[in-house]
Specification:
The complex is a heterodimer.
Chain A lengths: L2 H17 L1 H21 L7 E7 L4 H12 L3 E6 L5 H8 L3 E5 L3 H11 L7 E2 L1 E4 L4 H16 L7 E2 L12 H32 L1 H7 L4 H31 L7 H23 L5 H5 L1 H12 L14 H4 L3 H13 L9 H25 L5
Parallel strand pairs in A: 1-2, 1-3, 4-6
Antiparallel strand pairs in A: 3-5
Chain B lengths: L7 E10 L2 E11 L4 E5 L6 H9 L6 E6 L2 E3 L10 E4 L11 H10 L5 H14 L15 H13 L5 E5 L7 H16 L3 E6 L10 E6 L2 E6 L1 H12 L6 H9 L9
Parallel strand pairs in B: 3-8, 3-9, 6-7, 7-8
Antiparallel strand pairs in B: 1-2, 1-4, 4-5, 9-10
The chains are: A alpha/beta, B alpha/beta.
Chain lengths: 371, 256
């Protein structure tokens, strides 16, 4: 293996991209647009969630819960009379949640204070929740918990609360790592695929395989080119994330870059693999949605993997971006080292090793049963 | 007779794609310094034969040798000495003329200075001097073909496999290509080229005529003409007639 041949391939790929100003613009604009678009659409500041509030107790204490909820921008609170079936109300009226305070709430709340922690008596708020949108559900749970906290010294109010992310982490903070992975995966996979299919169509592949260039050198050349591009794209995402959305990065940026480049390597391998299935550029384009849709829908980028129906969830674990998201979120949001998120880390490593090995076999075939 | 290793050697070379036999038991030997023309219609198996000799396609049966090395297995020792021009011209359409040459020079380990020097030489030779910065997809067909030949010649190979190098060229440019070939040949290069322009066969030292995967006639143009004249009784047949006569159903008491 010779470094100069690898770098010759790298230089050539970069020059080709440099010449195609549309692709070049696409590469730089995509991360920016993705970050801005997704950032603004999902920046976590969910507002105007329609919530029904039913107060069967009607005391000063419960009134203060209502007040807290009303003060929260997230909610559009409607006060209703008691209903028999909150679920039906939810279905029929379009409320995202029905919050019902039972009539003994206030007395149980104070009884608990009077008897100390030993008692099991405590105020309970019934929450009926539309779980179809986990982000909204989470907002409601958190909003209600906040309202209950406002009651006093962390009043022992029972609500079934499940937090999706840490309380201080906003959605956008965990979104930036996903955008980085998505953009890098798309560009590396799609452009590698197109580039290699073009080599086949134009016959330049034949010239490469009669030259001293080895398959491994060829792949490494692509890997270095797209690794560099991934780095630039990550910088674009992080810059916009930082300046426009003020995202919080708790972890090491260096580790994040290492992980992103690793992911780019796997994506180059995937693009090479897919190139075996396409003989022409128009056939290659068919694969684009195949790469994009699962990544966006199943990777846990927009909603947690836990929110994906059980039936589809195994598919999530076949989507490389799922692992990249776990890994990059752990590194950037939680501030962990890559190996402290073993599932994501191993997942990305397996993705890299598997695709690069298979890609090498695929190139052997494309090279026309050369060896 | 001195012991000379054939530049290209095919021994009962056969390639089957499924039920199609693209090349059917071809044996041939091209000696150093020859210009050998492989002629025959499209689909006769010329490209497959050339790809097997270049190591790009593995034979189903038989053996291919390039400069004495078995192909495709033994190409590592000889790949620097060998140049291949695929039928598809095979240049990077989104790179400039000079960048194409730069890349193909780099992968053969040439220094940038050497590549720059060779680029100047070749662009001059191919009359592409003012096209260095032009993107390949903006070149005319003839210019692109000249670039393709330049990419093949850049690293100064001894053995050249040219697959339809003159296809689609206008007559003047075709003559010019042949001037290049003879010039290269005069400097000791061995050339095996495929063409379906039969009259080009006249300009080769030796000609192999292919039809349906088989090498049906081989020899110097004069030899083939004499044989055709013999068989048909026609006086001074041109190469097209020679091909038609020799590929017709074999006449009793055919070639010696």
């Amino acid at each position: 293996m010779k470094a100069y041949r690898i770098l010759a391939v790298t230089e050539r790929v970069l020059r080709q991209l440099w010449h195609d100003k549309r692709v070049l613009a696409f590469m730089l604009v995509l991360p920016a647009v993705a970050m801005l678009l997704f950032g603004y659409s999902f920046s976590g500041d969910i507002t105007d969630i329609r919530v029904a509030f039913i107060d069967e107790d009607d005391t000063d204490l419960t009134a203060s819960i209502l007040e807290s909820l009303r003060a929260d921008d997230a909610f559009d609170v409607a006060v209703l009379q008691a209903v028999d079936d909150p679920e039906r109300l939810l279905f029929e009226s379009g409320y995202q949640a029905v919050i019902r305070i039972p009539d003994k709430f206030t007395s149980l709340y104070y009884a608990h204070f009077a008897m100390g922690v030993a008692t099991s008596a405590q105020g309970t708020i019934d929450l009926t929740l539309d779980e179809s949108d986990p982000q909204i559900a989470a907002t409601i749970k958190m909003g209600l918990a906040d309202a209950a906290m406002d009651l006093g010294e962390g009043g022992p109010v029972e609500i079934d609360t499940r937090e999706l992310y840490g309380v201080e982490v906003r959605f956008i903070d965990s979104f930036a790592p996903a955008i980085m992975g998505l953009v890098v995966a798309l560009i590396s996979t799609v452009l590698t695929l197109l580039s290699i299919v073009r080599e086949k169509v134009d016959g330049t592949f034949s010239r490469i395989w009669v030259s001293p260039v080895r398959r491994a050198e060829f792949i490494l050349g692509y890997v270095i080119a797209f690794g560099l591009i991934a780095l630039v794209q990550s910088l674009v995402v992080l810059t916009i994330g930082k300046t426009v959305f003020d995202i919080v990065i708790n972890g090491s940026i260096a580790w994040a870059f290492v992980c992103v480049i690793l992911f780019a390597v796997g994506s180059v391998g995937l693009g090479t693999l897919l190139s075996a299935l396409a003989q022409t550029e128009s056939q290659a384009i068919i694969f684009f949605p195949l790469v994009i849709l699962p990544s966006v829908l199943l990777s846990g980028m927009m909603w947690p993997v836990q929110a994906i129906p059980r039936l589809l969830r195994p598919l999530s674990y076949l989507v490389p971006l799922t692992y990249s998201n776990r890994l990059l979120r752990a590194v950037m949001v939680k501030g962990l080292a890559p190996w402290q998120e073993p599932v994501g880390f191993v997942g990305v490593l397996v993705f890299v090793v598997l695709t690069i090995l298979l890609a090498s076999g695929v190139l052997r075939q494309s090279a026309g049963e050369r060896e | 007779m001195t012991e000379r290793i054939p530049v290209f050697l095919a021994e009962s070379l056969t390639k089957r794609f499924g039920s199609l036999c693209a090349v059917d038991g071809v044996s041939m030997s091209i000696e150093p310094g020859e210009i050998y023309g492989l002629v025959g219609p499209s689909g006769a198996g010329k490209t497959t034969l050339i790809r097997m000799l270049s190591g790009l396609t593995a034979p189903t049966d038989g053996a291919a040798r390039l400069l004495g090395s078995p192909m495709p297995g033994g190409r590592r020792g000889v790949e620097h000495r060998f140049g291949y021009m695929p039928q598809e011209r095979a240049v990077y359409r989104d790179l400039s003329v000079a960048e194409n040459l730069l890349f193909f020079g780099q992968i053969y380990g040439m220094s940038r200075a050497r590549i720059a020097q060779r680029t100047r030489e070749l662009l001059g030779l191919m009359r592409l001097e003012d096209r260095g910065r032009q993107r390949a997809d903006r070149l005319s067909g003839g210019e692109k073909q000249r670039l393709a030949l330049a990419c093949t010649l850049l690293h100064e190979p001894d053995a050249l496999l040219l697959d339809e190098p003159t296809i689609g060229l206008d007559p003047a440019l075709r003559r010019e290509f042949w001037d290049h070939f003879r010039e290269l040949n005069a400097r000791g290069r061995t050339i095996l080229l495929a063409t379906h322009y039969l009259y080009e066969a006249e300009w080769c030292d030796r000609v192999g005529m292919m039809q349906r995967g088989r090498l049906i006639a081989e020899g110097t143009p004069e030899h083939l003409k004499a044989e055709a004249a013999d068989r048909s009784g026609q006086e001074r047949p041109d190469m097209e007639e020679v091909f038609l006569i020799l590929t017709r159903a074999p006449v009793a008491g055919g070639a010696p």
